[in-house]
# Entry
Amino acid sequence: MTQIHFKKMKELIEEYNERIKNSLQTISENCKEHCFQFNTGELVPFTGKDSEKNCPAWQRLWRPFKQISSPVVYWFQLTSDTNPADVFEAAKKCKEAQVADETFRYLPALKKNGGTTSKTLYVGCCASTKFDARMFWHFGYYKVGQTQGLQLCHWSRPLAADISIHVLQLPPEAKDLVYVYEKLVAQKLTPIIGK
# Structure
């Protein structure tokens, strides 16, 4: 009886392996790439709801962001000569200066030593969140500061750094794998901000 049970389980696993293999092939064949560029000097300070309406970068990018559906893996890349150490220090100062009041902004984790020379600012993913909403948090214009994001308008404007946002849009079959892909991309790119 036990041998039959193991045999059936082995057949079931082989069947699922074939399904996974087919899903991975579909994912590989149906990825779309997008790239968006802006300069952090274009960002405007957050002064409350609708601040983004005065931001040239946001006004230029939000419609294209809206066209992208999840799941996605994305990363922010420094394309100017901005020193990664300066980026780390600016984010660190913002994080340390905050108090838990209406101005609080929840930034992702910072590396303990900050000694990276990586030009990758951050790596993230969206499994089901709308991509434009996720970017809204990263730009720092969402009214709820406890929603984690880069909060760029709160600390990066003086750097006037050129940034490219690279987006790998995956087919729906990748929804459960998007976190694995995010981790693999982050391990490869070693971002300044985030784990």
Q: What stands out?
A: Residues 133 and 171 are 19 Å apart (CA to CA).
